[in-house]
Automatic annotation (TrEMBL):
Matches recorded under PANTHER family: CRISPR SYSTEM CMR SUBUNIT CMR6
Chain positions covered by the region annotation Disordered: 237-263
Entry protein name: CRISPR type III-B/RAMP module RAMP protein Cmr6
UniProt cross-references to Pfam families, sorted A to Z: RAMPs
Length: 419
């Protein structure tokens, strides 16, 4: 049997992703800029990593990437909710299962969930010549969508805690109102054995990767989470060492050097991500998780930013309910009423309500069991089978969390007065 020569993956993708009447020779740069796959890619990450339809850069034109514009445009379109392409349809199913897992309490584990929204572009990928995106975007290996790594969120929290410790002289109030003891950062986030004479210590809390929240089809402002950004480096020859002077040294940069506009993929402002942090199921840890979210993570995302180019305003995210507060939990607020999706943890009977704006309320104990038993048999069966069940929920904000006060099958026009 004759062994066939290997085929470059980019060539294979070009033959299979494009119809024969749209395939163009690699040297036709004008047409390469307008190529579109049909159908759109089902995995955007694999598409960007392996399917660049263009020749390698030559010495005469090292920055000439005619196929990259088409590659980026296809990646953006593949996650656009307006057209509901295959990649987004598949991801919705995966995200729904992941979200149920993130919003459910598990035996021995206590968790907190919040949703954050990008208020500026976000750059997360390290700058590397091995990536088609040149250090613009970080996509999930399995799902092919943008996400915020849990390690980055945890590192941001620790860095922000170190800064607070330095600025306040160590006088930071804990969730119970007492001043935090010395070494609280190491005990909360863990440390390596090389730090001092103590052995290593694990963190008391874990940060999940924050996945992109796909907008509902047809919802106002629904857009792809990816967007193009333009960078204008002015001194490419100086930084790339490609233009040595007469003495062999690099030519110093000049104000007359022309800018070279280049495109990069970024996370679009407005994209939302679901954050979950968790710890061992101990009553004392619940207030600490709330404190980490409201006093460390959300202020750090809003003020410091995550990823690269944060000094230029990139990487800023805010909680969907507004700017984060700080410190310990405050008093209760008046009750409110709204429709919410209801779920239940069967092992302990806890009730959970997820509202359209991203708020999450919960209730445990005997009162949760009483409310559940007051519902009709049909509704209880739907909830226990994890079927979408939307009911009227009376809830109250207590400190940094929301608590369910009542669940009603029949909407009533009146709103209960505050007690």
């Amino acid at each position: 049997m004759t062994k066939q020569p290997p085929i470059p993956l980019a060539d294979w993708a070009g033959w299979h992703a494009l119809p024969p009447d749209r395939q163009q020779p690699a040297h036709d740069k004008d047409k390469l800029q307008n190529l579109r796959p049909d159908p759109l890619p089902a995995h955007v990450g694999l598409w960007l990593d392996r399917c660049l339809f263009e020749p390698k850069a030559s010495e005469d034109a090292p920055d000439d990437h005619p196929g990259r514009r088409a590659l980026y445009a296809s990646a953006i379109e593949a996650l656009d909710p307006v057209a509901e392409p295959p990649a987004l349809t598949h991801y919705r199913t995966l995200f729904a299962a992941w979200e149920r897992l993130a919003r459910t309490d598990h035996p021995g584990v206590l968790g907190r969930v919040c949703e954050v929204r990008a208020r500026s572009r976000v750059l997360l990928h390290p700058n590397s010549g091995a990536s088609v995106t040149d250090g613009g975007i970080l996509l999930h290996h399995s799902y092919g969508v943008p996400y915020l790594p849990g390690t980055a969120l945890k590192g941001l929290c620790r860095a922000f805690a170190d800064r607070l410790q330095e600025e306040t002289g160590g006088k930071i109030d804990s969730p119970n109102g007492a001043v935090l003891p010395e070494g609280w950062i190491d005990r909360l986030f863990g440390h390596l054995p090389c730090q001092g004479d103590r052995g290593g210590e694990a963190s008391l809390c874990d940060f999940w990767d924050a996945l992109w929240v796909p907008p509902e089809p047809g919802s106002p402002g629904a857009e792809s989470p990816l967007a193009l950004d333009v960078v204008n480096p002015h001194h490419g020859a100086y930084y790339s060492k490609s233009s040595p002077g007469q003495d062999g040294e690099r030519v110093p940069p000049k104000e007359s050097d022309p800018p070279i506009p280049t495109h990069r993929l970024t996370i679009r402002p407005g994209a939302r991500f679901l954050v979950r942090i968790e710890s061992a199921d101990d009553p004392a840890f619940g207030a600490w998780l709330d404190w980490i979210l409201t006093a460390l993570l959300l202020p750090a995302l809003d003020n410091e930013g995550i990823g690269t180019r944060t000094t230029s305003g990139y990487g800023r995210l805010v909680g969907v309910d507004g700017p984060a507060g700080g410190g310990a939990a405050g008093g209760a607020t008046p009750s409110e009423r709204d429709l919410a999706l209801i779920s239940r943890t069967r092992n302990d009977g806890a009730l959970h309500a997820t509202f359209a704006d991203g708020k999450f309320a919960t209730l445990r104990g005997e009162r949760a069991r009483q409310i559940f038993q007051s519902l009709s048999d049909t509704v209880r069966r739907r909830i226990d089978r994890n079927k979408p069940t939307r009911l009227q929920v009376v809830y109250r904000k207590q400190g940094n969390a929301y608590t369910i006060e009542d669940i009603q099958e029949t909407p009533t026009p009146s709103t209960p007065a505050a007690t």
